[in-house]
Amino acid sequence: MNTADRNNRTRPEQMSLRKKIADSAWFNRSVEGLIAAWIRFAHDSSSWDRIGFEPMDEALRAGEPVIVALWHQRLMMSPWLFDVSLGRICTLTSSARAGRLAGQVQARFGFDTIAMSSHKRHVALSREVLGKIRDGYSIGIATDGPRGPARIASTVPLVWARSSGCRVFVVSFSANRVLEFPTWDRMWLPTPFSKGVLMCREWRETVPRKPSEEEMERLRLSLQAALDEVTDASDHAAGRLTGA
């Protein structure tokens, strides 16, 4: 057997082995545990300012579910962007391997998750989400996730705000030191012994029951601007941006 034949035979075996490892429940639990431990240690060893969360916290104490929106890049600190001691939350994740991993990490911090799938019809997903809201769950969503483009808001939170009447809050984290991954959104992972900021603002627009296409686009751009503003403000507060 020549070298080319051996290489052609080896590649499928290597790919099969990598897939088996990636699909292994033990492997995934180990990775989830490591990520969760890193995030917890980064949070606990750092100093954090929590800014603007009072209106959302008051709503949760009153038993009012809310919609929490953020950019996918800032997803890693979501366990501290919603206080699960005040209410329950369900987040939307991708059904792909990375999305399932993210969902399981969040589950370790007390979050419920719903997997979005290209095979799941939009109507079925909306019913599932609205059912969670009726059961008292808040809903969290990376508004440009799971594949981007980065910092381009979808209309999904608007649809749920229209159907449920829930208030919408935009949140972000930032820190003076982070690890940045080479993903489509340059995902941030906080580092230990940093100085960071957790920030929340209410998006005060009202979504009408039957908005026109023009009105829906205006609201989408408004939500997108609010997400950019809270994210840039958190960067500024953490010392990552200068100026007003």
UniProtKB/TrEMBL annotation:
Query: What InterPro entries does this protein map onto?
Result: DUF374 (IPR007172)
Provide the protein name.
DUF374 domain-containing protein
What species was this sequence derived from? Jhaorihella thermophila
Q: Which residues form the DUF374 domain?
A: 88-150
